[in-house]
Design a protein that fits this description.
The protein is of the alpha/beta class and about 170 residues long. It has a single domain, classed as Molybdenum Cofactor Biosythetic Enzyme, Chain A (3-Layer(aba) Sandwich). It is about 45% helix and about 20% strand. The protein has a six-stranded mixed sheet with strand order 2-1-3-6-5-4, sandwiched between helices.
Length: about 170
């Protein structure tokens, strides 16, 4: 079976998503990424079943990852922020150590798409994705443009397929 067959089997039902914004300054009112993601997910027929803003501290990133992955209501966790190379950027470091399976193509494609938008600065993004405890985890930069590029070009077209792949048998 090919990718299109898998997409058909995955169906189009609602996918349950948790959103984690990693920021030292955003609030629920000023979190443009959350507002975009929640609205767009609802428009596509999916459900936001968790949301939080955390500081870019390794213990907070790990706690959010473990908490949402342990929740059977969550199929996909979307992290935004903390993927750069600045000293405060720890999101990638924590998540990459926890993933049971990685999706290297996600980061590669994201950086390729980002290059078209921001040029060589795209190489500083440590966007990543993979599977942790039968939950898909996606981690992208915190800029609104980066979130929209990642979601519209990569995640939303495959969201049902991603959620289905981690639980299907054989």
């Amino acid at each position: 079976m090919g990718a299109e067959d898998h997409r058909q089997q995955a169906g189009h039902g609602p996918v349950r998503v948790a959103i984690v914004t990693v920021s030292d300054t955003r609030t629920p009112e000023t979190d443009a990424n959350y507002h975009y993601l929640a609205a767009r997910l609802a428009e596509l027929g999916h459900q936001v079943v968790g949301y939080r803003i955390i500081k870019d501290e390794a213990d907070q990133v790990l706690e959010a990852l473990q908490t949402y992955a342990a929740d059977p209501a969550v199929q996909i966790i979307l992290f935004n922020g903390g993927t750069g190379i600045a000293p405060r950027d720890t999101t990638y470091d924590v998540i990459s150590r926890q993933l049971h399976k990685t999706l290297p193509g996600f980061g590669e494609l994201f950086r390729m798409l980002s290059y078209a938008e921001v040029g060589a600065a795209a190489m500083m993004s440590r966007a990543t994705a993979g599977v942790y405890q039968q939950t898909v985890v996606v981690s992208v930069p915190g800029s609104t443009n980066a979130v929209q590029v990642a979601m519209e070009k990569l995640i939303f077209p495959e969201i049902n397929h991603l959620a289905w792949e981690i639980v299907r048998k054989g």
